[in-house]
Design goal:
Layout: H1 2-17, H2 19-25, H3 27-45, H4 53-81, H5 84-88, H6 95-121, H7 128-139, H8 141-152, H9 156-171, H10 173-179, H11 191-200, H12 205-231
Helix pairs in contact: 3-4, 3-6, 4-6, 4-8, 4-9, 4-11, 6-7, 6-8, 7-12, 8-9, 8-12, 11-12
């Protein structure tokens, strides 16, 4: 456990060492403020958007979760550049356990980021239980994004590019939901899709539970596959 505590302490030091990374720590608060105060102002000019408030909240939650994902990705890509993952193989704990603990920590940060965005945005219809359930599902996208980035990117420059692409991918499911309703469930292969389906079904409790359960399962499948792929690098 001491090794894990040292890991967390070092990660926090690395974050606060870079002023650019510190900004990402405030993303949940910024997103909550945008939803709480900016969304009502937007409705005044574009009244039709009022009916899509939950989808807007989902987008802002996904943006919030990219904060922990970005921070962890940059730290791990630095370690990748310096071949520190090779050093992990001679540590008292296995490299697999080491990475799993870090992914768990990232998941908790993602959960917290999403929960802060939901709770402090005070969006109608989202009670405490809904916020916890939705944050659990959305929080799992943090380790997913991290694994995608560190597996596919060779350095921090490529990592930033991949993260930008993933931001676009996170909104792609909306195309299936609104633009091509006949092929709506074709977007289900994209993990982010189930986040939107769960948020959009808050008013129907059973549907929200089902979509959240599917979303968690899809995320875990992708995380498991990417984790194995990352270990083989």
């Amino acid at each position: 456990m001491n090794y894990f505590l040292i890991l967390v302490r070092n990660d926090i030091r690395n974050i606060f060492r870079d002023k650019v990374l510190i900004i990402f720590c405030f993303l949940p608060v910024i997103m909550a403020v945008l939803m709480r105060f900016g969304f009502p102002l937007t409705v005044n000019y574009f009244p039709l958007i009022k009916d899509y408030r939950l989808y807007v909240l989902a987008i802002l939650c996904l943006v919030s979760v990219t904060g922990p994902a970005f921070l962890s990705s940059m730290i791990m890509l630095d370690e990748k550049d310096e071949n520190l993952f090779t050093v992990l193989r001679v540590m008292p704990v296995s490299s697999g356990t080491f990475i799993l603990f870090r992914l768990l920590f990232i998941t908790l940060l993602g959960f917290f980021a999403s929960w802060v965005t939901i709770v402090f945005s005070e969006t109608a219809g989202v009670n405490f239980f809904n916020a916890v359930l939705l944050s659990l599902q959305t929080g799992l996208t943090a380790p997913l994004i991290t694994l995608l980035c560190i597996t596919l990117a060779r350095n921090k420059v490529e990592g930033v590019t991949f993260l930008k692409g993933l931001n676009f991918l996170s909104m792609l499911p909306l195309v299936f939901i609104f633009a091509v309703p006949d092929w709506e469930y074709a977007g289900g292969i994209i993990p982010f899709y189930w986040v939107y389906k769960a948020f959009g079904s808050i008013e129907i409790f059973t549907k929200m539970i089902v979509y959240s359960g599917i979303g968690v399962s899809v995320n875990l499948l992708f995380i498991s596959w990417l984790y194995k792929k990352f270990q083989s690098i």
